[in-house]
Amino acid sequence: MFKWPGEVEKVQRLDARPDFATLKRIMAQSAQKQAVKTTFSWQENTLQREYQIAVKYMAKTYSFEWSLHFVKNGEKVKVWTEVSDSAKTIVDRITQSVNNPGEDQKTSTGGQRPQPFEMTTARMSAARKILEKTYDSVPSEELEQLTVKKAALNGNLKVLNITNLLQSISLGRMSGKLSITRPGESFQIFFNDGRPVHAEGNKGQGEECFLKIISWKTGDFTFEEQVSTKEATINRSLELLILEGVLLMDFNDFLIGAGYCTEAVLQKSDSNLSEAQFEEIVTKGEPVDLRLLKTIYLQVDGKKTVDDLCTIIRMPDSLRIHAFTNLLKTKVLKVSSTKPVEKKTQIAAKVYDTSAISAINNQLTNQISGLYTYQAFLFLTDYAIKFSPDRNLALLLCKLQNSPYQEKANPGNTSRINIANQYRDLVKTIESVPEFNGVVFQYDGGDIVVSISGLNSFAAATMAERVLRATQANPSPGKLLVKTMGVACFPHDGTNMGLLLGALEAATERSQKHSDHPIFLAKDL
């Protein structure tokens, strides 16, 4: 086995298969020994087999690299490799692998991901036909005209459909950021000379994120010129991405018509099908990585739902749609039923006085910034610690740049309305960060503090990176920016309110002294 120079592999013996608590302890130990791979082994007596789980903390991404092996005839055989900071995910994968050892040997990819989707000539031809039927055809000269009309690149997808919008940007060789939003969802696509280079939103990033947008029929869009990014998550051309997105829409329509949904239970059409027969049938259908198709097929038992299968076999949404389209179109699988929904007693909603909530909310709001007050932050944090002592709580104290708050005593040309608008825009940017689920408060002074329940130090650090990157993405005169940030988590960094806030402020002060990295974690103090 090849190793990086200086890397030391340590093996520790466990009494039994690692559970959630054991893996959390392993993660904590690994985080203190960055870039060192540690291996833990245990014996599965019923199988007469030894398993080994190796873990290495990757400080750059605040996550862990895991790999599971079993020992056979003195040789280590890899079962899978996973990058995750979720102990529950790893417990589930270990349990599945140990409980189904035969399936591991049949379908193991040696830690490799399924092969990505390939746009063949036949697929491109089929996609173009669907594109012509689905969307109105707009002559290229008209698309070029759209690029010189800035107003045309601000509107709704009901007026200008998504493919025409993307093509107009490409034909005009425009550089900037396209923002598309609708209730509960927002995406941004960055272009360089008409070529998409990066996409991100509240449901991921990269090409998978881009493909989700192709199906949108409604949504407000705005194009901002000359807004750039250092991220590069898109490698394929715009044409290929649009054609694949159109194919995915068509396949998704087929799946829905076949009864496919997350609660659908699948079963094998012929349980006596040999491996050779299976390969012969599925290779005539939608081209998909054969190893992935086998992995899905072997997991189908007439009891698992589609949601269960997708939890066990992690794969991108686009690949999932292609795979299930193949297996249902070739009829090696069929939808047998849908999990019955439990009947619930109909309960009449209580009518209550909403003005009471508004009155309390107004009392908790800072009159200058429009955010929840520092006092509200103290009260709710104290409440969370006292009544949820077993739940993690992450605090991100953000030191702001260009803050007008300090001028409140003598506002000058900065009115309270302008101050409130600047804070509102900052909060809107933070809330658009992928997977963000927190509350923003005014801290003691002009800065802000973000409270997020359920995050440990590693997850909080990842979220802090996203918040910092989002708020610094498009600097402009007068815009509030997060300059540095301290991160502290309950109960790891403080078991009571005073200790937690002390750790938070100490980490924030340290972040201001380290210009090379504006985020500092209290756990590193």
Question: Can you describe this structure?
Answer:
With 525 residues, the protein is of the alpha+beta class. The chain is 38% helix and 22% strand. It contains 17 helices and 18 strands. The strands form 4 sheets. Strands 6-11-7-8-9-10 form a 6-stranded antiparallel beta sheet. Strands 1-2-3-4-5 form a 5-stranded mixed beta sheet. It has a 5-stranded mixed beta sheet with strand order 15-16-14-17-18, with helices on both faces. Helix 1 links the parallel strand 1 (10-13) and strand 2. Helix 4 crosses helix 8 (238-257). The longest helix is centred in the middle third of the chain and has 20 residues, at 238-257. It is globular, with a radius of gyration of 26 Å. Residues 1-8, 104-116 and 407-411 have low confidence and may be disordered.
Descriptive key words:
22% strand, alpha+beta, 17 helices, six-stranded antiparallel beta sheet, 38% helix, 525 residues, globular, five-stranded mixed beta sheet
Low-pLDDT runs of 5+ residues are 1-8, 104-116, 407-411
Strand order of the largest sheet: 6-11-7-8-9-10
Number of strands: 18
Helix percent reads 25-40%
Largest sheet: 6 strands, antiparallel
The radius of gyration over CA amounts to 26 Å
Task: Give the rounded overall mean pLDDT.
Answer: 80
Strand percentage, roughly? 15-25%
Please work out how many helical segments DSSP would assign. Answer: 17
Structural class: alpha+beta
Measured between the Cα atoms of the first and last residue, the distance is 36 Å
Instruction: Characterize the overall form.
Output: globular
